[in-house]
Design a protein that fits this description.
By secondary structure, this protein is α/β, with parallel strands linked by helices. The protein folds into 3 domains: 117 residues, D-Maltodextrin-Binding Protein, domain 2 (3-Layer(aba) Sandwich); 82 residues, 3-Layer(aba) Sandwich (D-Maltodextrin-Binding Protein, domain 2), CATH 3.40.190; 78 residues, Porphobilinogen deaminase, C-terminal domain (Double Stranded RNA Binding Domain, 2-Layer Sandwich). It has 10 helices and 13 strands. A 5-stranded mixed beta sheet has the order 2-1-3-10-4, with helices on both faces. Strands 7-6-8-5-9 form a 5-stranded mixed beta sheet, sandwiched between helices. A 3-stranded antiparallel beta sheet has the order 11-12-13, covered by helices on one side.
Amino acid sequence: MRLVLATRRSPLALAQSRAFARSLEAKNPGLAIEELHIVTSGDKTQDRPLQDIGGKGLFIKELEEALLDGRADFAVHSIKDVPAELAPSLRIACIPAREDPRDAIVARDGLTLATLPPGSKVGTGSLRRIVALRSARPDLVFEPVRGNVDTRMRKVAEGQFDAVVLAFAGLRRLGWEGRATDVIAPEISLPAIGQGALGIECRTDAASAIAALAPLVHVETSICVAAERAVMLAVDGSCRLPVAAFAVREGNTMFLRGLLADPDGTNLRRGERRAPFPTTEDEAARLGRELGATLKSNAGAR
């Protein structure tokens, strides 16, 4: 059997897509996977912040078109780039085991979040990261940065920034985890919704692809991500709204934390829920909706 995988061309996208493809082939003897490389709208426009050009959904639009017109059987996404709602004819058929979800800093001279001097210039394109890190270090200067992981790290080496903030999962998938000078605890920078997890998308009628993907579904990760994505849906989350949610299993309990701020980064509020670990994604989503509703209702509590 042959399946066509749609992926972006960035080094990180190719690394995570190929690693997933090898795992998929291992679970499906006789399966051959062919790559379809696509340059998305998000890749083409690098000179403006994502929130000004349509948000993270721009990283998946053209991949979804390839699924819908039959050029590809499935697409590999970082699920944090996937909007809360999909087209009716598409579904996330598989969420494999999650990589480390934390944020990381790559800084000059081995500096950490705690040791960066006041006034240091820190590059990030994420409103969520700015809000969280400014709460911990209000004396730092945060400026927008776009580009692939290696491009962002090069800007530190060239002196354009003192540090950049990246997803530690991306560094690990590229084999560059040793270049992180600090890995930030979720208590300081709550991870993006779905950070560290992949979302494998296909058409709802793609029976062969869905069957092949089934052995790589990681139930615990899928349930945690369902709770996080429900928070995003409940607060009408977008790239213009600093929002985060992170769910973990602790024994038989789910610990779900959330963060929400106004679009300008003010009125930061946090919340959390603990409950018996859900047995289904629908159950997890209910917990996420409850937390999201609480965060949204506290919008006026300045």
